[in-house]
Design brief:
Distance between the termini: 37 Å
Number of strands: 7
Number of domains: 1
CATH class: Alpha Beta
Strand content: 5-15%
Structural class: alpha/beta
Bound molecules: cytidine-5'-monophosphate
CATH topology: sialyltransferase cstii, chain A
Strand order of the largest sheet: 5-4-3-2-1-6-7
Amino acid sequence: RTAKFKELLLKEFHRVLMGDSKVFTSGLDVHNTYDVKYDSNNPKKSSREEVMCALKSVQLRAITADDEPFSRLGFKIPRAPLQEQRHFNTCAVVTSAGALLGSDLGEFIDSHDMVLRFNNAPTENYTESVGSKTTFRVLNSQVVAKPEFNFLEDPLYRNVSILIWDPANYTSTLEDWYHHPDYPLFPVYKKLLDRYKNADVHLLNPQVLWGLWSVLQDTSPYRLRRNPPSSGFIGLWFALHRCERVRMFEYVPSARATRRCHYHAPAHDAACTLGAWHPLAHEKTLAERLRDNKDVQVFQQGIIDVPGFRTITC
Ligand code: C5P
């Protein structure tokens, strides 16, 4: 059963990626929103070691208090970013996939030294499925900028370390980005820093997104959408920098897979799991190649287990 499911799933990823790729080769793809430049002569990376080393070489860079224009504009960005570079033994990265609902994985997730969650995914009322501990959140800029998320007030975003991402154009400077973010996150971020003096909340340097995208493209036989990776992939890469071992939940879909988008909301949309805007199908294909646990755990329980970057020498 596991082998059959694995085969079907990988075929499905393949189908999605081929579909995307056709759009490129047919010349229909005229969208390059972020003006991404990619040299198709880049050497392809295929072995697990090559992929891990390529991902490791994308450095964890957050905006600092000295970066312009943030320094000039008085953003009180904390000096010691993101829990002062703490390193953890075991880490759980919990996607928001609908398939987590009813998984009973909560207790296991909470047994990890660090737990990373995404966007507005709650734990309250879902602890049996996803646990209750949160160490980090990775947020896209919509959560910060759109009033319905109530970022400045909601307790979901307090007493937790937060990494926020928003894409800039491929060649943009920070100054350009500041004037043209995807969503207007900067005034809200400034307010937050003024209001909560000890907030451990940081902005990911947007160049990191294109570094990660390039690794994705260098490891794919297909041409990918020229959009940033999903929060999930950013979270996985972040955790690999900080943890000896990373367990990620329902990123590579298990036999519990469902059309339900999020465990915390009833809406159905298969694109949440397979990708519509992000190069998600390839992110997941790659993550599946990096894991070193048994098929049955991946495809029945929905867990991939990946050794952290510190455990490899490049
Ligand atoms: O939808 P949202 O971005 O808030 O979800 C957080 C992350 O969880 C996504 O970026 C994606 O990587 C992952 N996810 C998934 N399958 C789903 C929903 C979310 O892999 N059905």
